[in-house]
Amino acid sequence: MFGVGDYVTRKSYNNDIVFKVIDIRDNIYYLKGVNFRLYADSPKEDLVVCEDNLDSDKFSPSIDDYRDLDRNEYFYLPGKILHIDGDEEYLEKCMNFYNKSKIKAYGLYLKEDEFAISIGNLLKKYNPDILVLTGHDAFYRKKRNKYKNTSNFVDAVMEARKYEKSHEKLLIIAGACQSNYEELIKAGANFASSPKRVNIHALDPAIVASCLSFSDKNTNIDLIKILDKRKIKNIKILYNCKYISNYRAFLYFKYSILHLLKSLVLLYIHLQ
Predict the structure, then answer these.
(1) Are 93 and 185 in a shared domain?
(2) CA 104, CA 114: separation in Å to the nearest integer?
(3) How many domains does the chain have?
(4) Does residue 58 lie within any of the structural domains?
(5) What are the C-alpha distances in Å from 221 to residues 15, 66, 86?
(6) pLDDT band at 214; cut points 50, 70, 90
(7) Which of 3, 62, 242, 268 has its CA 20 to 30 A from that of 126?
């Protein structure tokens, strides 16, 4: 038997991700990823108790190389971050990461369906340079390609762009595990997850936001360098005394096409 709060894996997915049982209704177990921003549901027969809950995940990359800016000619103030999260536990992890990295960040917990109606007032209050909109999501292939929370993220991005249309003055990072990346980019996000509907680590949005915060806005952003900071490691799950390894979680972000086109136009004008 499994109860709310138990840590489990799913046999049908080769026990790849550890989940926490958050609800049980009509013999269906509703799950939340422990270290990945993913919701799922499962029948009891597909679940296996996980002895190692992996809640002590120590992943916390250093971004010290982003602090090595030449300040001889100017004073540089890192970008301010507003991080809105649909998961309180993940928000706490992200805020700890920001604090460790000595970044000025404001963290707020809201349910994903509250993002859009709240975002305007929050942007006015905190006036951030970087906005993170994340939480949990899921892609339901058996339900005509429906998403758990993508529409909520899209609505929030669109409301944020009503407040600040410039993709340079306000950088937006949006999405969670298996979110509809294409729709988030079209809505106005600079960075979004996730192409191919892959899973992302709880810290991935905070890592990208932190790297952007320390990036010189007068120079080009090295996306490859930023993406290398993400969670990419072997995860060992203790299951029947057998280690399941080489599970790799990738987070893909794409810089805004609109911003790229604008840069090309400015370059063309400069060369004339």
Answers:
(1) yes
(2) 24
(3) 2
(4) no
(5) 37, 11, 28
(6) confident
(7) 62
Beta-strand pair 242-244/237-239:
antiparallel
Assigned domain for 155 exists: yes
Q: 190 pLDDT exceeds 80?
A: yes
Chain centroid to CA 41: how far?
21
Contact between residue 209 and residue 94 where contact means Cβ atoms under 8 Å apart: no
The residue ranking higher by pLDDT, 22 or 72, is 22
User: For residue 61, what are its two tokens?
Assistant: 């990359």
Angle 128-231-112 from CA coordinates, rounded to 5°: 45
Residues 169 and 195 in one domain: yes
Identify the domain containing residue 160 by its residue range: 64-233+248-263
For 92, half-sphere exposure in the C-beta direction (CA atoms, 13 angstrom radius) is 4
Identify residue 161 by its one-letter amino acid code.
R
Question: Does one domain contain both 39 and 135?
Answer: no
Residues 123 and 39 occupy one common structural domain: no
211 in any annotated domain:
yes
Question: Residue 32: which pLDDT band, with cuts at 50, 70 and 90?
Answer: confident
pTM (2 d.p.): 0.70
Query: 115-126 and 150-163 are packed helices; what angle lies between their axes, rounded to 10 degrees?
Result: 40
For residue 262, how many other CB atoms are within 10 A of its CB?
A: 14
Report pLDDT for 217: 62
Co-location of 140 and 203 in the same domain: yes
Domain shared by 116 and 186, yes or no: yes
What is the pLDDT at residue 237? 23
Q: Both 82 and 117 in a single domain?
A: yes
Given the DSSP bridges, would you call strands 28-33 and 39-43 parallel, antiparallel or unpaired? antiparallel
Tell me: do 11 and 146 sit in the same domain: no
Q: Give the amino acid at 178.
A: Q
DSSP string, 134-150: E--B-EEGGGTSEESSH
> How does pLDDT run across 80-121, given as a tens digit for each residue?
999 999 999 889 989 999 998 888 999 999 999 999 999 999
